[in-house]
Amino acid sequence: MTREHKPDAPFDDSNIDYSEADALTEEQIENAAKSDPDAQPLTEEDIKHLKIRRPNRDNNEHLKNG
């Protein structure tokens, strides 16, 4: 499911309790991120081989017309 958030209707996070996340230290956050196999930082070698791809405007016209 995808939700679109517009500037005039921002995401409502009033029901989310952030106190547990706020209590984490930077070290705890970094260790948690490093322990997630899907969130590993890019190496210098990875960065050298990155290719930036931009959407083809012709193929995205249908997105503008909703």
Structure characteristics:
single chain, 66 residues, mainly alpha, 4 helices
Question: Can you describe what's shown?
Answer:
The chain is mostly helical and 66 residues long. The chain has a domain at 41-66. It is 35% helix and 0% strand. The protein contains 4 helices and no strands. The mean pLDDT is 82.
Low-confidence runs: none
Overall mean pLDDT stands at 82
Order of helices and strands: HHHH
| Helix-residue proportion | 25-40%
Summarize the structure.
This protein has 66 residues and is an all-alpha fold. It has a domain of 26 residues.
Helix and strand arrangement:
Layout: H1 19-22, H2 26-35, H3 44-48, H4 61-64
